[in-house]
Amino acid sequence: MDTVTTRYGAIPVAGCLEWHESGALMSCAPAGPALLATPLGPLPPQYSTDDLRRRTVQGIYFYDDGALRHLPLETPTVIATPAGPLLAELVTFHRSGAVSRVFPLNGKLSGYWTEEDEGRLAGPVTLETPLGPLTARIISVNFAPGGTLRSITLWPGESIDLPTPAGSLAVRIGLSFGPDGSVQSVEPARPQAVATPVGLVQAYDLDACGICGDQNSLAFATDGSVKRIATSLTRLIVAGADGQERVVAPASRESLCSASEREPEPLRLAFSPGEVCVRTTPDSAPVVLSLADFRIRTAPHLEQFDSPFGRPFGKMGCSV
Predict the structure, then answer these.
(1) What is the bridge-based pairing of β-strands 245-248 and 132-136?
(2) Which of 166, 175, 251 is nearest to 200 (CA)?
(3) Does 149 have pLDDT greater than 70?
(4) For residue 135, what is the enclosing H or E element?
(5) SS3 string of 19-56?
(6) Quick check: helix, strand or coil at residue 181?
(7) What is the pLDDT of residue 162?
(8) CA dihedral sign of residues 44, 48, 50, 54
(9) What is the pTM assigned to this prediction?
(10) Which end of the chain is more exposed for a tag (fewer CB within 10 A), N or C?
(11) Exposed/middle/buried for 161, CB within 10 Å: 0-12, 13-18, 19+?
(12) What share of the chain is helix, strand, coil (3-state, %, to 5)?
């Protein structure tokens, strides 16, 4: 068994080592117990596996200057963070040594260990946030280099009610904060009416990615106004100087589950002073409308959804 020496201590290793172009160590896989003297105190890197949850030893990663970047832990360990103490199985660091992300769980999903299995281990966590204490099951917490709370990623299926610049909203997937602690973005858990410069919009993104809460479909400017919003339930009615009205509605696409079905594609609106930028699909060219040159109002858009006796809102044909 070989040993590599780092600024945090010696690590017994096995297998290939990865190196930066500068010659500094990039990553290694521990082959035995160690205790690293990290900026968060002594921490034990993962070196063992099991037949279900942790089928491989995950590597330790370093920046090109030798600073610790990514550290899986052998045992759940309480970490001191700016949001309070957290039990962690994975910690990442900024180059400065400040904590970046904390993951309470770090299991490997497979046919033998599912998200439901991992979820049974995910107990509620209480965090100190700019909104006050917040208790929820979480995937991770993200901090800025200076220690301010950047974002919280919620466990799949978790939903919490939060005060936002748009009022109290049910939130899923995640939420993010600005440097001043204000709510920067949230992912609405269900369609909820939000006031925008063009009228009320039912905020809800069917395509929201549940991996990370850093960027969410409902975002706010520093003054609390809506900066960005996605909807599948609201259309725009736009009238120009000629008085003729044109409708801009959410698109639909062929279902990934069945060629015989269509599924909605959220309409995405982004606001800047005096303008609204509209995208009907992620790949479409943005259309920028001046609020001074166009009269814009909103209206419900329901045509792509099943009847109340069909499948529930937000579920595709194959339950995606």
Answers:
(1) unpaired
(2) 166
(3) yes
(4) strand 132-136
(5) ECCCCCEEEECECCCCCEEECCEEECECCCCCCCCCCC
(6) coil
(7) 97
(8) positive
(9) 0.90
(10) N
(11) exposed
(12) 0, 50, 50
> Which contacts (CB < 8 Å, 24+ apart) does range 122-129 have?
122/155, 125/86, 125/87, 126/84, 127/83, 127/84, 127/86, 127/152, 128/82, 128/83, 128/84, 129/83, 129/177
Asked whether residue 260 carries a pLDDT value surpassing 80, the answer given is no
Q: d(Cα 188, Cα 167) in Å, to the nearest integer?
A: 12
Two tokens at 168? Answer: 């109290």
Q: How far apart are CA 54 and CA 77, in angstroms?
A: 16
Residue 151 C-alpha from the chain's centroid = 8
b (16+ CB within 10 A) / e for 122-153: beebebebebeebebbbbbbbbeeeeebbbbb
Report the share of the chain in percent with pLDDT over 90. Answer: 76
| Burial profile 182-218: b = 16 or more Cβ within 10 angstroms, e = fewer | bbbbbbbbebbebebebeebbbbbbebeeebbbebbb
Q: How many whole angstroms separate alpha carbon 254 and alpha carbon 258?
A: 8
What is the C-alpha to C-alpha distance for residues 283 and 274, in angstroms, rounded to an integer? 24
Q: Which of 234, 229, 217 is nearest to 271 (CA)?
A: 229
**Shortest CA distance to 121 belongs to which of 110, 136, 105?**
105
Residue 28 in tokens = 């290694």
Cα–Cα distance, 88 to 98 (Å, whole number):
15
Whether residue 154 has pLDDT greater than 50: yes
End-to-end CA distance of the chain: 46
84 C-beta neighbours (distance < 10 Å), count = 14
| Pick from 12, 216, 220: nearest CA to 3 | 12
Q: Are 276 and 198 in contact (CB under 8 A)?
A: yes
Q: What secondary structure letter does DSSP report for 64?
A: T
Buried b (16+ CB within 10 A) or exposed e, 88-121: bbbbbbbeeeebbbbbbbbbeeeeebeeeebeee
Q: Is the pLDDT of residue 17 over 80?
A: yes
CA angle at 1 for the pair 109 and 45, rounded to the nearest 5°: 40
